Every structure is written in structure tokens, then in C-alpha cells.
Amino acid sequence: MARAKAAIYIDDASVKITLVRANAVEKWGTVPLEPDIVKNGIITNPDLLSSKIRNLLKENRIRVKKLVVGLSGLHAITKVITLPHVPKKLLPDAISHEAERELPVSIDTVYLSWQIIQQSFLETSVFLVAYSRDVIDPLVKTLSKAGIASYTLELGPLALSRIANTPTSAVFDVRPGEMDIVITTGNVPDVVRSVPLPRDRSIEENLPIIREELERTISFYKPETTDRDIPFFGFGELELGMFEYLSTASNSIITSPYPPLYYPEEFSPRGNAISLGLLMPEQKTTDPAYPKIATLNLLPLIYQKPLLPDVLFVISTVLVLGGLIFSVAQFALAMDKTTSYREQLSAAQQTLAGRQAELLVAKKALTTLDAQVSQADKDMKAITNSMNDLAVR
Predict the structure, then answer these.
(1) What CA–CA distances, in Å, run from 314 to 135, 232, 258, 307, 308?
(2) How far apart are the first and last CA of the chain?
(3) Confidence at residue 99, expressed as pLDDT on a 0 to 100 scale
(4) Average pLDDT over every residue of 290-300
């Protein structure tokens, strides 16, 4: 059996899951969400949402080892930064310093993820994603409660550019309550925008807003690498007339490319564009002139899967045995040193005892000499007195 891969995408309105096996859509399902479970992309009720995800997986009999969770672009900041060439071990600190300087938010409120997309002897180009901690923390808690242990987090809008499968393109996707616009030049995402849409309106009622956002993005973005119009692709539950209406915003024909996956007729590829993009195999850059295609796991290191218990047991055992062997060696060395020091101390004590005995003998001799000197002084004094008496007479 070919290995299966599944993608989950959560927004304010629903949870979608899609499973692909051998490049074919095999299963898919959707569960609607009541208000206040997810608000503006932030999970406010992890317990209830985890229960719904668990039931969705069970009802569709989906059990996979490789799960991709798509993140909305509403709480993401993307940026391409260029750094002078620095040693590899210093690159994380350099990126963090540059992010702190460039980002319009405090880096303490976001998780930073980055990927080198091009590198030379002079400089390094890095695709940087800063994602709100207020979104990722409750999401990780929800997935854990749902029994999902192994997964990756990927930015949903970037998945759209995979479906376009061309180095330079403009892609948009419209969903209830949200739209994404991604413009890529030479595999580098120059523009990644996610715009909230009124939830109480249908997609048709939101068309003027969608058109205005497309016009604004296209007018702001000026392709510098080519004079030709870039390919324009659109996804979402849109009728043909809606695409024609939105084409006037870019002065180009909007098409909907089919992803290189097989799917049943009842499955809507345009309505599940992000999920399919998340499930597509990683694309490689065929032209060395183009940078590497940006695709990175946004799951923070603190949440990434720890070592398996068996691996931990082996490592801990090796560490304990290594520590024990080291301790035994150190103890033996200490014992040898202690024996040597004791022998030296005994010899020193014997020498000291001999010197003390010699000192005692010397003290006795000195006392005798002192007595003799004193007696000699007395005798000398008596003789001196006697001579003085004789001289007087």
C-alpha cells in the first residue's frame, strides 16, 4: 500500500480534512463550526474543537503518520531578507537580529521560521515567516487533545503557489470569511496577503471587496523581471461569471489550473485548493538560476516531536554507564593519589620526629653551655676582684 498523507485546514467556519494516497484524493470531509470556537483564526475553545477533529478523523477512518496542518495567512508576516555572508553557526542570531529590526511587531509575540532560498559567497537570501504565538499555542494544545502527535505546520497561502507550478504567477483563493493573494516571482513569494471577508455575506455579495483587493494588490505590485503580464490563477467556490468579473481587476484572463492529482468527480479541487497544495509533493527547482521554492515547517522547536522513549532509554543508559565508568576511574585515581600522599606524610613525620629529637639534644647542650658560661663569668669576676685588692695594698 502506498503511504497516505492527510491535510487539515481550520478556519472560523469549518474544519476540512483531505487524504491523498498515490497522488489520488482518496478521502475528504468537512465539519462546520459553531460561532466562538474559532474567532478571527484564533482558537478560543480547544476542548470542543479537539472533539470535533477527533470525530472527523474517526468518521472518515483516517489514520496517517504524515499530517500537514495548514495555517491561515491572517496572522502571518512574510518577508525576504538579504544578509551578508556569515558563518552557518552565526546565521540564526543574524536572522533574529534582522527580524527584530525589520518586523513591525515585537519578536516576543511571534514564532520565527526561516528558510535559505539562495546563497552566494557574498550574501544569503532568507524567506522569513513570523507567526503569532496566540494562534500556534492553542492550536498545538487542540491537536494534542485530539490525539494527533506527529504533524507539520505550513502556511496555507504558500500552498497555492505550488498548484500554479510556475516560477512567476499571481494566485488568489476565496473562502467564506477569508481570501488569499500570493504573487511569486522566480519562485520567491513577493506578496503574501490574507484578507478577512464579512462572514455574514455570501461570496457573491463579497465580490466587490474581492475585486478591490485584487486591484489594490496588482497595482501595488510591479513585476520588474518581465514586461509581460504574469499568469493569473484563481480558486474558490466561484462561478464562471465571477471569474470573468474579477478578471477586469488584473486586465488578464483568470484560469484555474488543475493540480497534478487524481480526484473523484464529486470532489471540488477549486474549493479545496489550499488542502491540495499542502498535499502536493515538494517541487524542486529545475533552473539553477531560480532560488529554492519556499516550503518550511512553522512548528516551533519547543513543540517538535521529542525522542522516542526507546531512544531516550538507550541514551540515558549510555550516559549513566559512561558516568559510572568515569566515576570508577576517578575513584581509582583518587585512591592512588591518597596512598601516595599518605606515604609521603609518613616519611615527613619520621623526618620531623628525628629533627625534633636532634633539637631536644641541642637544647640540652645549650643549657649546659649557658650554665658553664655563667659559672665562667662568676669565676672571672672573682679573679678580677682579687687582683684589684692586691693592687691597692
Answers:
(1) 36, 54, 48, 11, 10
(2) 147
(3) 93
(4) 75
The residues, any chain, with a CB within 8 Å of residue 369's CB and separated by 6 or more, are none
| pTM: predicted TM-score of the whole model, two decimal places | 0.72
| Cα–Cα distance measured from residue 339 to residue 330, given in angstroms and rounded to the nearest whole number | 14
> For residues 27 and 19, what is the distance between their CA atoms, to the nearest angstrom?
5
Phi-psi region of 128 (alpha: psi -120 to 50; beta: other; left: phi over 0): beta
Between CA 255 and CA 272 the distance in angstroms is: 16
CB 71 within 8 A of CB 155: yes
pLDDT > 90 fraction of the chain, expressed in percent and rounded: 41
Write phi, then psi, for 111 (nearest 5 degrees): -100, 135
Which residue, chain included where needed, has cell 491535510? 7
Strand order in the sheet with 178-185: 188-196, 178-185, 169-175, 232-236, 254-255
H helix intervals, the chain: 46-59, 91-102, 133-145, 156-164, 207-220, 240-247, 273-279, 309-392
Q: List 28's β-bridge partners, or say none.
A: 18
DSSP conformation class of 65:
S
Q: Are 55 and 115 in contact (CB under 8 A)?
A: no
If we measure between CA atoms, which residue out of 164, 79, 90, 86 comes closest to residue 128?
A: 79
> 306-340: b or e for each residue (b if 16 or more CB lie within 10 Å)?
eeeeeeeeeeeeeeeeeeeeeeeeeeeeeeeeeee
The cell for 226 is 518581465
C-alpha cell at 272: 479545496
- The set of residues, in sequence order, having a beta carbon less than 8 Å from that of 217 and lying 6+ positions away, is 181, 183, 191, 193
Task: For residues 153 and 136, give the distance between their C-alpha atoms in angstroms, rounded to a whole number.
Answer: 9
Q: What is the mean pLDDT of residues 42-64?
A: 93
